[in-house]
Fold this protein.
Amino acid sequence: MNTEFQFECTGVWRPFTAGQTYYYVDLTVSMGYSVWIWTGDSLDSHYAYLNHAFPTWQQADQAHLLAIEYLASNQEKFGFMENEPREGQTVWISNSLYPFWSNSIAYDSSDKLHKQLFKNHILHATEEGAINAAKGLVQFLRKETAQNYFKPLTKAPQNGTKVYVADVTAKDGYKYIIYNSEFEYLLNDRLLFSNMLGAIRASTAMRQLINPPILDTTKKPEPDKQ
């Protein structure tokens, strides 16, 4: 599986500005992503909250390819249909943009979109399976985007190493500790960083998640470019 997933996430900790074009991962369309204009409405915020929104199409494309690769490598976990559905068979679509419900379709092998849904590993024999798979994919993308943006320590440093903790209770957003096994829980929670700036970035994100910044709504959004 490709672990070189290098893009900056643009979730709730770093919102777009009004009128900005952005791209969101959407495995239900042929390209794997769609383009939209940020207005700051609930739908925009929803896509950002799910870590599906990116400032460039290249980042969205890379994210969608990684998502498909992850699904393909974890069939047992996600339970998507490995064999193409029968003609007219009712199947459910696992859509990570809306992970709490699922649409059903009567499968049509002559429909290019239906074929694409099957190739993207998001067709399921049951509604429950589709919903569970969507939730699992959201969790995966959140983890990938967060780790690649914030770059926390993922392996234990040597005992005695000075490391930085993302700490929203600290005035400057961080504190430092001398690592030992007592602090393994901080490592597992991805709150440890090798440098001060990484810890500050993460704590700033947590603060913005709790108290989101006010969006700039003075700039009129551009017309829909789709």
The mean pLDDT is 84. The chain has two domains: 21-150, 162-210. The chain has seven helices and nine strands. Residues 159 and 180 are 5 Å apart (CA to CA).
